[in-house]
Amino acid sequence: MAISPVRFLLPAVVVTACAGILSAQEPLPAAEPDPWHHPARDTVSLEAYRGWQQYSLQCARCHGEDALGTSFAPDLVLALKPDGNVPNREAFLAVLAGSRESKGMPSAARLGIDPAYFEGLYQYLKGRSEGRLKGGRPARRDE
Hints:
The protein has helices at about 5-25, 45-65, 75-80, 90-95, 110, 120-130; strands at about 45, 140. The chain is mostly helical.
């Protein structure tokens, strides 16, 4: 049985024609900036990223989106500085494990924050305090 040469030529002609059309197209325009979803400015470890998630879910409503404080909760960026109210990891963990009820700060357990996230919360907030991390959503580094 003889095979027609057209059967082999047709796919080659179609591919060549499509390649010519694709190469003749103008490049796609750059995407417009999205005013609602800003690109991540920092890349953090998975643990710190999960800390940021917990901060956003549990803490931001009082301490502000970027941990800069509000009219009723303190600025955590300042609090975690060496001369702040919570200058080190141990003091930070003590606040989370305990509470500051007299100042309106419930314990992390009462807020529903699992202790597995404490270290990530500290890493995220300490990074903000030291100026290594900017405000907004960080990117997660794949580990």
